[in-house]
Amino acid sequence: MRNRSVVTEFILLGIPHTEGLETMLFALFLSFYIFTLIGNLLILLAIVSSTRLHTPMYFFLCKLSVCDIFFPSVSSPKMLFYLSGNSRAISYGGCVSQLFFYHFLGCTECFLYTVMAYDRFVAICHPLRYTIIMSHRVCTILATGTSFFGCIQATFLTTLTFQLPFCGPREVDYYFCDIPVMLKLACADTAALEMVGFISVGLMPLSCFLLILTSYSCIVCSILQIRSAEGRRHAFSTCSAHLTAILLFYMPVVLIYLRPTPSPWLDATVQVLNNLVTPMLNPLIYSLRNKEVKLSLRNVLHHLGFLPEKF
After folding, report:
1. What is the per-residue pLDDT for 299?
2. Which domains occur in the chain, in start order?
């Protein structure tokens, strides 16, 4: 405990090899962050304001939008703060909080995508029993479970990282506190912990991905048995948005955490895409090909005064 208390704050060095680009990056990331917040808030308003969208699929989409609001908020405000010329220092407690909430929200989204895949599996493969299987009670339990298990995973990873002694240096060669960069600053041998963290971070997304793959394999088999072309088209359209969001979520995880030889610049670039761009794109992905969401969004924008009455 004595050694751990030596370092009371860390210095975030930011994205590697971007010296002199602070003003441009500030404007770019601020616009991404604002669009992310507005887009996901509009999706929430559209779903809450329309009784036709009060179904399990949109209930889980609501939770995804909430996660997509908070997920970039873990690292973006501090990043924008120092990009605007302010201090790059972050307290020890702030660093712990960043790492915990980043993995808590990330793991929650990972579990949530798995639950959403199960929801589509039940809707397409067992349509007559859908309302019975996906009852309000079941949906509440599943939604709560995603946060509960996300919290357990994040607590384990945070404890694993910060039980190490940090006695200097204190420069974090990244734009927020994450496991790989924090392990480099520890004043102890981290080889065993790196392996445990690698297995933990890799095993959880892999397990979820295999469950998603199983759900969609069953979904594809069921869709191919639908005789009408219109029925197949409608079934595919309801799943395509979810599949696109899953790919955007999992590709950065694989590139950042599961590569044997990390690259700071590539990791930071992919991490920015994962933290800011993917949450910004999710509202577009789930609304562009969904007539009900688009109609509800028009109504919301009309009531807010952004659209004329005859639009």
Report:
1. 79
2. 9-294 (1.20.1070.10)
